[in-house]
Structures are given as structure tokens and as C-alpha cells.
Task: inverse folding
């Protein structure tokens, strides 16, 4: 069930992001940022779930914060890069 | 028209493909090549069921000077073969109670563990493991702990039998296979190890490997050793006999003659109940350790019955009856010798309760020692030594020097002072290699540690920052633990 919920949410986010950014010119490094963000987020979620199932709740939250934080920072940086390119 | 897809030129795309292709090619070149699935399944790493990052090597990662080790040497028999503790029972109890109360000021020490095999028998200075629930969990692990029969049963045998360990050659509950209308199992040594591994895993053991009884084995095997609580040491000899000849037939044995056809040592290890152990608090080890003692001794004897059922004989190495289990564990490739003084396995870290094994006449495929960077990690880690309340685990670099009569020479290791060890619940749960929840990070870390030691101190710091290791005792009762105490899928 969670798989299908995740799939639907993922498709919705992808469609939304595409519609919002269809007029945005992306550089090669934007794709790299995007990939790194997705990998970080996936790592954070997997680490959280894996750690909780192994009763490592403290490690679960810290790992989620670490990988999620990394994804957030990367997203912020890339967002600013795109926004400043648009202004220029 | 949208420019969304036009930022990556065809030229750049082809360049990227080229880079990926080169990467895949390089990876293929250094990876092992298999022609078919049978070949892959029959590789040594597949047979011993080890993770991909475990390397098989020719010699154990602990350097051993074989020249200084005598063949069939004599174990130290001072103090009846028991390592004396430098602290009185009162001093030891005070250190542990202070240590525990400092960590958990509201800790309820609960009833004593008086009468439970293993913990302190001193009525004035007994052991405590926590409130009534934690105490009861240990009491539940009392039945047949260490294979000990209940007192009434011992008395009913007139004291002839005391534990399931009493027959080192196994109990042989059924007649020989030839008398049951069969013939002994036949197969190649490779098939034999596979069959025994399958059975051992069914009964509850892992890391099932084997080594021959060769010159090196005889250098770590004792020619004379006193078992715990035995009145006399036991001599071990190889002779022209058909079966093990134990004199007298029941413990305490002064001599065991081993048939010369017994040429293999079968090695296995048992996981210890990790979550209980991590939540253990008090003056002695806890239900995790105690209950593993109920299980592993029974399992060793069960495997002996299995071998008997196949038509082969065996002699158990329970409690290092004839060989130090650390030595056999690393020689047979179950793990590496870790700073805390026992074997660390790749899959379970040090959350294992002793390396086990039997001598047998069933020809078995020889296994190799392994290297997964464990010993190298211990060099920079030292979390267990920092945690030890008794200062029994050596900090710093390993040494060849022997500081005590009961210490064994001939290997480069951390020379821990077992006369200070009080078997408390602290060092075992804190090892970073115990981490085996389902997070991908552990595979990544262990794979890296196996390849290079340069990140070891970083990983040690991360282990501390992520709060792996010991946990408050009350938490365990709130969690829905897996059946049997551990998740067999990790």
C-alpha cells in the first residue's frame, strides 16, 4: 500500500515540478543537483526506516536530519542558481 | 517550444555515455567473473555465506608467531585454571553499582540474582540487573543455563551427571546408523560442509567453517587443560583408537584419547540476543548473555547428535575444552580477533557468544581466514576500552608481550587484563560493528572499512554521534521485539 501511495505522490511531484519549470532553462549541473537531492532524500528515508526497524530510533532521526538536511541545502543552492540565472 | 530538454547537447550526452561505459568496464575488469550460476554458487565466499566485502586471506589478520607456540601445550593451571580477579567481590560490586547509578540515578537495582548460574554466588555481595522485570528475565534464563540440570535431577543421578556438557563426545541418543538399517553419509568435503552448514544454521548457528587438524592447529590446541570447576586438568592425546576414550567416562576426565582419523575441526558461532544485551544494566551480564548460554551449549550438543546421525563422531570444544576459541575462530575464518579479546564477526560484530566447534572424523572442505578490516578498525576505535568500567581492555597498540601467566604468548594483540574483568554488561554492546539494523549505511561503512582504513576514525566518531550502543533498560520493555530475540533477516 505504501508503495502505491509513494508512487502516486512521486508522479504528482514530478508532474507539478515539470509544469512549474517548463520554461526554465536547466544547465547540466542542475541535473546533477537534482540527482544528488533525490539520492540524499532516498538515503534519508531508507536510513530512517531501516534504523527504526532495528530499534535505533536516535540514529534514525539523526540520519534523516543529516541526509534530509543535505538534500535541503542542495535544493536551496540549486534553486538560487536557477533563480539568479533567470534574473540575469 | 519548451527548451526543457535542450540544455544537454547530444555531444555532452555521448560524452556522459562514454564515461559511464568506461566506469562499467573498469568495474567489470576488477570484479570476479563467473561463467554460470553454478560456478558463482560454488565460490568459497558463497559457501561460507559471508557478505561481499569479506576477503578470504591466507593467514589470520592477527599476526601469529608459530615458532613460539608449542605443539599440544599446557594451559596455565594456577588458581585451578581460573583467572583470579584482582578486586574483591565487594570492591567489584561497588565499582559497578557506582558506575550504574552515575549513568541512571533512578535505577532500581531490584532483587539479587542469587542462585542463577553464572552471576555472583556471594550472599553478601550478590549481583543486580535491575527491577523485578529485568531480574525475572534473567531468572527465566536460569533453567538449564550452561546446560546445567536442575538440582533435583542431579541428585537423582547421585551426582553422576550435572550438565549436558558431561559427555564431550556427545550423548549419542540413538544407535549407530549401521544398527538402524543404514550406512554412514558419504560425500565430498565440499558437500559435507554444505550439509553440516545447513544443519547448523537450522539448529541456530552461523559462520560454519572448517579447518584441518594440522601442525598449526596442534599449536593452538591444548595437550592439557583444566575445565571450569573441574577437580583435575584433562590431558588430550591422539591415539590408535576407534572412538574417543574418556578416562573416567564421566566428568571430571583426566584424559581423552582422540582417534587419529579425527582430522577436522568444525567451527560455528552463535548470535547473542543483541537488543537485550544493549539494554543490559547492572553488576553482571544480563538475560541476553544468560539465555544465549542456555541455547548455545544445547546447540553444540545437538550438532554432535546430527554428526552421529550421519555416522560420524565428534568431540566438543565447549568453553575452550581443548583449544582457545579465539584462535580457532580466526583460523577457520569466522571473524577477526577484536580489541575486546574475542572474535568479531563480519555480520554480527561482537554480538556473538563465543566461537564453538567440534573435532570430527567427517572430512570437511577447508575454509580460509578472513579480513574485513575489523582488526584494523579496532586500532583506531577503542570505544570498548574507553567504556570498560574496570579498565580491563588495553588502550593503544597491540603487543606481543605477555603480562600474566594465564595469558597466551605468540600473537600480536591487545593484552587485556582479565584479572580486572568482572563480566559486566558494558563492553559488548558498544562495538560499532554490532550495528546491523536495515539501514544501508552499515553496508556502506563496512564495505569501506574492508577496503581502506582512512575513514575509520570518522566512522568511530559517527557511531558515537548517532548514539549506537547501550540503551536505557526500560526502553526494551516498550519495544515489540522480534520472535526469538533477533531479526534473522539481518
Result:
Amino acid at each position: 500500500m505504501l508503495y502505491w501511495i509513494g508512487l502516486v505522490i512521486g508522479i504528482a511531484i514530478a508532474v507539478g515540478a515539470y509544469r512549474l519549470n517548463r520554461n526554465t532553462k536547466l544547465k547540466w549541473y542542475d541535473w546533477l543537483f537534482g540527482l544528488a537531492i533525490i539520492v540524499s532524500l532516498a538515503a534519508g528515508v531508507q536510513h530512517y526506516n531501516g534504523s527504526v526497524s532495528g530499534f535505533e530510533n536516535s540514529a534514525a532521526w539523526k540520519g534523516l536530519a543529516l541526509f534530509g538536511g543535505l538534500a535541503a541545502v542542495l535544493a536551496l543552492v540549486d534553486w538560487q542558481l536557477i533563480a539568479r540565472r533567470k534574473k540575469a | 517550444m519548451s527548451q526543457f530538454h535542450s540544455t544537454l547537447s547530444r555531444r555532452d550526452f555521448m560524452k556522459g555515455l562514454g564515461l559511464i561505459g568506461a566506469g562499467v568496464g573498469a568495474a567489470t575488469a576488477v570484479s570476479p567473473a563467473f561463467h554460470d550460476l553454478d560456478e558463482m554458487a560454488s565460490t568459497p565466499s558463497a559457501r561460507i555465506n559471508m557478505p561481499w566485502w569479506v576477503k578470504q586471506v591466507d593467514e589470520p589478520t592477527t599476526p601469529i608467531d608459530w615458532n613460539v607456540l608449542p605443539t599440544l601445550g599446557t594451559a596455565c593451571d594456577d588458581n585451578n585454571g581460573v583467572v583470579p580477579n584482582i578486586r574483591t567481590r565487594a570492591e567489584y560490586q561497588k565499582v559497578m553499582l557506582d558506575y550504574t547509578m552515575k549513568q541512571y540515578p533512578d535505577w532500581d537495582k531490584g532483587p539479587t540474582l542469587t542462585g542463577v548460574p553464572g552471576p555472583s554466588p556471594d550472599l553478601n555481595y550478590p549481583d543486580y540487573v535491575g527491577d523485578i522485570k529485568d531480574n525475572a528475565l534473567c531468572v527465566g534464563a536460569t533453567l538449564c543455563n550452561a546446560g546445567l540440570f536442575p538440582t533435583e535431577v542431579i541428585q537423582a543421578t547421585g551426582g553422576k551427571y550435572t550438565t549436558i556438557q558431561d559427555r564431550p563426545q556427545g550423548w549419542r541418543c540413538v544407535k549407530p546408523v549401521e544398527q538402524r538399517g543404514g550406512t554412514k553419509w558419504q560425500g565430498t568435503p565440499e558437500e559435507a560442509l554444505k550439509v553440516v552448514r545447513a544443519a547448523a544454521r537450522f539448529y541456530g548457528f552461523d559462520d560454519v567453517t572448517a579447518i584441518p587438524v594440522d601442525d598449526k592447529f596442534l599449536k593452538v590446541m591444548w595437550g592439557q587443560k583444566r575445565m571450569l570447576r573441574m577437580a583435575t586438568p584433562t590431558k588430550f592425546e591422539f591415539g590408535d583408537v576407534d572412538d574417543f576414550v574418556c578416562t573416567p567416562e564421566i566428568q571430571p576426565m583426566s584424559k581423552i584419547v582422540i582417534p587419529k582419523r579425527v582430522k577436522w575441526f568444525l567451527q560455528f558461532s552463535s548470535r547473542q540476543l543483541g537488543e537485550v544485551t544493549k539494554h543490559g544494566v547492572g553488576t553482571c551480564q544480563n538475560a541476553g548473555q544468560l539465555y544465549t548460554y542456555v541455547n548455545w551449549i544445547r546447540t553444540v550438543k545437538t550438532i554432535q547428535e546430527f554428526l552421529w546421525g550421519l555416522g560420524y563422531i565428534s568431540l566438543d570444544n565447549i568453553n575452550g575444552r581443548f583449544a582457545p576459541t579465539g584462535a580457532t575462530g580466526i583460523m577457520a575464518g569466522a571473524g577477526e580477533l577484536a580489541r575486546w579479546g574475542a572474535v568479531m564477526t563480519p555480520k554480527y560484530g561482537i554480538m556473538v557468544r563465543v566461537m564453538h566447534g567440534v573435532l570430527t572424523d567427517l572430512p570437511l572442505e577447508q575454509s580460509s581466514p578472513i579480513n574485513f578490516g575489523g582488526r584494523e578498525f579496532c586500532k583506531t576505535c577503542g570505544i570498548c576500552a574507553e567504556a570498560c568500567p574496570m579498565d580491563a581492555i588495553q588502550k593503544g597498540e597491540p603487543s606481543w608481550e605477555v603480562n600474566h601467566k594465564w595469558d597466551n604468548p605468540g600473537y600480536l594483540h591487545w593484552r587485556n587484563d582479565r584479572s580486572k574483568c568482572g563480566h559486566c554488561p558494558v563492553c559488548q554492546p558498544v562495538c560499532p560493528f554490532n550495528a546491523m539494523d536495515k539501514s544501508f549505511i552499515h553496508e556502506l561503512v563496512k564495505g569501506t572499512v574492508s577496503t581502506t582504513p582512512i575513514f575509520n576514525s570518522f566512522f568511530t566518531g559517527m557511531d558515537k554521534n548517532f548514539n549506537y550502543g547501550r540503551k536505557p533498560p526500560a526502553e526494551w520493555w516498550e519495544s515489540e521485539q522480534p520472535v526469538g530475540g533477533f531479526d534473522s533477516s539481518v
